[in-house]
Design a protein that fits this description.
about 180 residues, alpha/beta, 4-stranded mixed beta sheet, two-stranded parallel sheet
Amino acid sequence: MVYTCRYKSPLGEILLAADEIGLTGLWFEGQKYFANTLPEEYVPQETKILTKAKKWLDVYFSGEEPKFTPPLHPTGSVFRQEVWKILLQIPYGQTITYGEIARRMAVMKNTSHMSAQAVGGAVGHNEISIIIPCHRVVGTNGSLTGYAGGIDKKILLLKLERTDMSRLFVPKKGTAL
């Protein structure tokens, strides 16, 4: 069974979902792919896992790095799961490029090349945003692109983490990356 609850964050309402194993979803209200992995049948009830996720968010939105992670249970292909594991290794307040993740994936797969676009697809379909920190992924040139919650939220999350923003920018529409 999947359980849900809502969390009021400084950036808007968040829907949390969890099963008996761990957190399965964390979406900003109205974001791209909002609740797209939430089954038709779920119970709006706070569980221990959801309570732990809310405590994590309380610490995070207070401007501190949480020293714990609630149990996670993301669902996706093996490739996506591997990309999400890399995302979990990005230090608080730092960023990584899609290309660097692709290079790490190539090493893991013992291949000479991995597509940064494929990595981008996996990053973009991360269902547990913030905790699996897809907002810390940037374009090769430091461009702030591709956040399902919206670029404005990505910027605010990075600023909350006191990320050095001096080398990051939002590209103008139509600009090649």
